[in-house]
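Two quick folds needed for the group meeting slides. Do the first one here.
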Amino acid sequence: MTISTNSFGVYVHVPFCAHRCDYCAFATYADRDHLMNEYVTSVLQEIEWSLEDGLPVATSVFFGGGTPLYSPPISYCASWGPFHERTTPK
């Protein structure tokens, strides 16, 4: 089996939920909706810093943790465009 070192996935933790499940071991919050926009801004800033530091382009992005769709997906997608344009192979 050959493992490629040219590709890797990125996991984006989304810590927001409508309610906390008893069995959940993730760092999640059901009472901090007011932080969603700031959190998205911070995630995008981390991506920007990673690109500036020369981190290779991720081939996959996984969202998980709490309830990823509880956070407005448009807030992630609307800001993703500039990164996609910079990182899409020509």
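Then this one, please, same format:
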Amino acid sequence: MFLPTDDKALLRTVLVVDDTRENLTVIGQLLRPYYHVRVANSGQRALQVAHTQPVPDIILLGVMMPEMDGYEVLAALRAAPETREIPVIFVTALDAIADEERGLQAARWTTWPSPSNPQCWWRGCAPIWS
């Protein structure tokens, strides 16, 4: 299981975006011992948070959200010079291959399942933050 061990990891900021309170709680609990965690419960709020200090080092972005889904949020992030280079990982309950491929192409990193397997979260962070 990958766990951050250097002191610099404690300074990294993760923005978690999901419209489901339970997901925000579980993901926040997994990450807070190691990272500065900011949360947003909507796409609009995510865009506001992403443009304020501390700017996130990575964004864990829910796909299925009302009003503005994860793909729309990602498009807005990529359109802004201040946020276009922030790595984005889609967090989704969608499990169809087509959904995963769309997420991989859009986010350029990966997709993760909703927070049911904490160990995959740490393995997934390793290539991004190393």
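Slide caption for protein two: Strands lie at 13-17, 36-40, 58-62, 88-92, 110-113.
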